[in-house]
Write a structure and sequence with these properties.
Blueprint lengths: L42 E5 L5 E4 L7 E2 L14 E7 L5 E7 L5 E6 L7 E2 L5 E5 L3 E6 L5 E5 L6 E7 L5 E7 L4 E8 L6 E5 L7 E9 L2 E7 L9 E8 L4 E3 L7 E3 L6 E3 L4 E3 L5 E4 L5 E5 L5 E6 L13 E6 L5 E6 L15 E3 L5 E6 L8 E6 L3
The chain binds calcium ion.
Calcium ion binds next to loops.
Length: about 375
């Protein structure tokens, strides 16, 4: 059963309130009280380490989370946020949070294909299914089907190219990843770009577009262990030209210019040839760029960062162009080890003024989403 406080359908967009994200700067207000007409779960939480407001966005008693630190799950106009939530049967749904009304609505039940991505115009969300991709209209919930002409596979890790006319994805089998593929959003020009050989490469993880013609992805050995290649980044072009980036890089994010890769787990930033441009060994975790391509965040936690470190359990903001570093907020991650990742995800809004992060506050085995203002 789904959490009954959450509405099955997306709230009518005409109900958009005027408060906008600027409403975050006010302390707890009347909108934080749930009424039968509201599915908002928003409450004021606390002040951040730099004195800005931190808002709790979800209060479902089960895990609410961000799919991964990339791609960006804020809608292109930053009015909505896509997230995942599990019900008491641990079945995942893809939900939309309206950042104007704080209303939460179910977009799609999604047992496996969760890792959706926004269309460029923000009108649709692409969701991977079995041998197909659904383009779901977020207002009408109408579904357009993009059939993937392949043998039986789950379609996962969806990403959209910068121009917005092409999707890339992983074709997943029962226990392995089969191929990295791409198709245009109109269903034409399907291409299988890289096939896992099932000898040294069993997983093809976290593919993302560097630009319209180039894709960054990772290969991993069997059981995701360190045999074979593990977290080895490759670039591949749409016509199949494959280049190994000669370093290790994981939990990465590519900056908006497509010329720097933040290797969050490894504590450095590299260019597309693997040259280290900046190192920050005192902290590593999940990383994400701000839209200006200069600032970035790291969720320092909890395995790579020693407990005595000032960055333990913190979301830290840094800049590529300077030595600026500060702690924005404690994410209080006390993560359930049964979760896929032991580190929380966090993302900048598309205007860079806010971060949404996930946190398992008070060790309740119940992750929730929080929104924090980033200082100017
Ligand atoms: Ca929750």
């Amino acid at each position: 059963m789904k959490n009954t406080t959450r509405r099955e359908l997306i709230q009518n967009a005409s109900l958009l309130a005027l408060m906008g994200l600027a409403g975050c700067s006010s302390a707890p207000d009347s909108t934080s009280v749930n009424t039968p007409e509201s599915t908002s779960e928003k409450t004021f939480y606390k002040k951040s380490d730099v004195g800005t407001d931190v808002i709790q966005l979800t209060s479902n008693s089960f895990h609410d989370g961000i799919f991964y630190q990339e791609p960006n799950y804020f809608s292109p106009d930053s009015s909505k946020f896509l997230f995942k939530s599990a019900d008491r049967d641990a079945k995942y749904g893809i939900y939309l949070l309206d950042l104007n009304t704080w209303d939460i609505g179910l977009l799609k039940n999604s047992p496996l294909g969760w890792m959706p991505t926004w269309s460029k115009d923000g009108k649709e969300v692409y969701v991977g299914e079995h041998s197909k991709i659904l383009a779901i209209n977020i207002k009408t919930l109408e579904e357009r089907t993009i059939n993937i002409p392949t043998d039986s596979s789950w379609i996962t890790f969806l990403h959209l190219n910068p121009s917005g006319d092409r999707l890339l994805f992983i074709e997943e089998g029962q226990k392995t990843h089969k191929a990295l593929s791409t198709i245009k959003t109109d269903g034409s020009d399907y291409r299988k770009l890289f096939i896992a050989d099932q000898e040294t490469v069993f997983f093809l993880d976290h593919p993302t577009f560097v630009d319209d013609n180039t894709i960054l992805f990772l290969t991993r050995g069997e059981n995701r262990n360190f045999r074979g290649d593990f977290n080895k980044p490759y670039l591949i072009t749409l016509d199949g030209k494959l280049t190994r980036i000669p370093t290790t890089c994981s939990h990465y994010d590519v900056n908006p210019n497509g010329d720097k890769i933040l290797c969050g787990q490894n504590g450095y930033i590299i260019d597309l040839e693997g040259n280290k441009l900046k190192e920050f060994p005192e902290i590593n975790g999940h990383g994400a760029w701000a839209p200006d391509g200069d600032a970035f965040l790291l969720t320092g936690d909890p395995i790579p960062v020693p407990k005595e470190s000032q960055y333990f359990g913190k979301i830290v903001i840094m800049k590529f162009s300077s030595d600026e570093i500060y702690s924005l907020v404690s994410h209080e991650s006390t993560y359930d080890s049964s979760l896929t990742h032991t580190q929380p995800n966090a993302q900048f809004s598309r205007d860079g003024k806010h971060i949404i992060y996930e946190s398992d506050r008070n060790q309740m085995q119940n992750t929730d989403l929080y929104l924090v203002e980033v200082p100017e």
